[in-house]
Design brief:
The protein is built from 3 helices and 6 strands. It has one domain (41-155). It is of the alpha+beta class.
Length: 163
C-alpha cells in the first residue's frame, strides 16, 4: 500500500516537474487596444415607438456645441426617426459653460419650439453623450438655456449611465 502511494506521489511529482513541454515566450504585440468608443458624434432622435435612439454623425467626435448644432439643423434624421427638439439654421458654435457637475448649453431656439418632454431629452442626451464619450463624468447634468422661455434642468439623460 505504501509502495502504491509513494509511486503515485513520485509520478505526480515527475509530471509536475516535466511541465507540458511549452516554453515561456516573450511579450507579444497585439496591435492597438480597443478604446470602446464608437466613431462619430452621438446625436439622439426619437424612433417610431417613442424611444430615444443614438445616431452617429460624421467620423469623429465633435464638441457639445457642434453636436447640438447637428441635432437642431438635421431636417431628415433617417427612416423611422424624428426630432422634437426644435430646429434652427444656426451657423455659429453654441455657447457652452461648465460649472461643477452642470453643463449649461445656450440654445438658439425658443422653449416653445421644443415639442414634448422627449425633445428636452434629445437635447440633454446629445450633450451628455458627447461629454461622456470625451471622458466626462456620468454624474454630470445639463441645463438648457433658451432664447425665450424658462430654462430646463439641470437634468440627466434617461438612457445614459448616471454616476
Amino acid at each position: 500500500m505504501i509502495r502504491r502511494v509513494l509511486g503515485a506521489a513520485l509520478t505526480a511529482a515527475a509530471l509536475a516537474l516535466a511541465g507540458c513541454g511549452v516554453g515561456p515566450s516573450g511579450v507579444l504585440g497585439g496591435g492597438q487596444a480597443p478604446t470602446g468608443l464608437a466613431p462619430g458624434t452621438p446625436v439622439y432622435f426619437v424612433d417610431d415607438e417613442g424611444g430615444l435612439v443614438v445616431q452617429r454623425r460624421g467620423d469623429r467626435l465633435s464638441t457639445i456645441g457642434q453636436a447640438m448644432k447637428m441635432l437642431l439643423t438635421t431636417t431628415s434624421p433617417g427612416p423611422g426617426l424624428r426630432s422634437y427638439a426644435g430646429t434652427s439654421q444656426v451657423a455659429l458654435e453654441l455657447p457652452i459653460a461648465t460649472s461643477g457637475d452642470v453643463i449649461t448649453v445656450g440654445l438658439p431656439i425658443d422653449r416653445a419650439d421644443v415639442r414634448r418632454e422627449i425633445g428636452l431629452d434629445q437635447l440633454a442626451c446629445t450633450a451628455l453623450a458627447v461629454h461622456q464619450q470625451s471622458g466626462g463624468s456620468p454624474a454630470t447634468r445639463v441645463r438648457l438655456d433658451f432664447l425665450h422661455g424658462p430654462a430646463a434642468g439641470p437634468r440627466h439623460c434617461p438612457v445614459l449611465p448616471q454616476g
